[in-house]
Structure formats: C-alpha cells, structure tokens
Amino acid sequence: GNEAVKPIFTAWLQPFAEMGAITVTSRNTGSTDHVAFDAVGLPGFQFIQDGLDYFARTHHSNQDTYDRLVADDLKQASVVVASFVYNAAMRDEKLPRKPLPAPVKPQ
Asked: In angstroms, rounded to a whole number, what is the distance separating the alpha carbons of residues 59 and 79?
C-alpha cells in the first residue's frame, strides 16, 4: 500500500468520524478499478464500504440492481469522496506515489 498517503488521508477523514467514516488502511481489499492506475505510478485508491449482504447475495448477480441501493450510504459516500477530491485538488504538492515495480527485462 501507499504508506506515505495514510497520514494525509487520516487528516482528511477526521471530520467524518461522527458519520462512521474512520478507517484508513493500506491493505488491498480486492482487485478494484484503481489497481491499473496504481500499477503504472498514478495514485489509485479505493474507499471501503460496508458490504452488508452485498457479497453474499448481490454482487454481480441478477439482484445487483438500482432498487437495492441504500440512499443514506450513497449520500455519505458522496460527501466523503467530494471532500477528498476537493482536498486533493487544493494541495500544493502531488499526492505521494508508491515506488514503481522494477521493469521486467526481456529474456
């Protein structure tokens, strides 16, 4: 994970503690869309969501439909993500990057 960004994200997340948004981790929670960006040196991050019964019954099934969305969860996520986008845009420096893996040499 990107350990250098953890203190930045922890500070950005603090105003949302009362909403239950408190966890910053560098552990990967699965292969999400951010992985491809991260692999080429662009900072890519994922937000942790409460899975409820999402992975047990819903994920990529015929039950994965709009009517199963939880409006309050979407509102909370929108506020947190918008805040992170704003804070990232207002930073004087780029967000820290993870070191790139060594290139694979042809054999």
From this structure: 24
- For CA atoms 95, 35, 7, 103, give the dihedral sign: negative
64 falls within a domain: yes
What's the DSSP call for residue 2?
-
90: left (phi over 0), alpha (psi -120 to 50) or beta: alpha
% of the chain with per-residue pLDDT over 70: 90
Nearest partner of 39 among 106, 92, 102, judged by Cα: 102
Nearest to 54 by CA among 69, 36, 39, 75: 69
Q: How many domains are contained in the chain?
A: 1
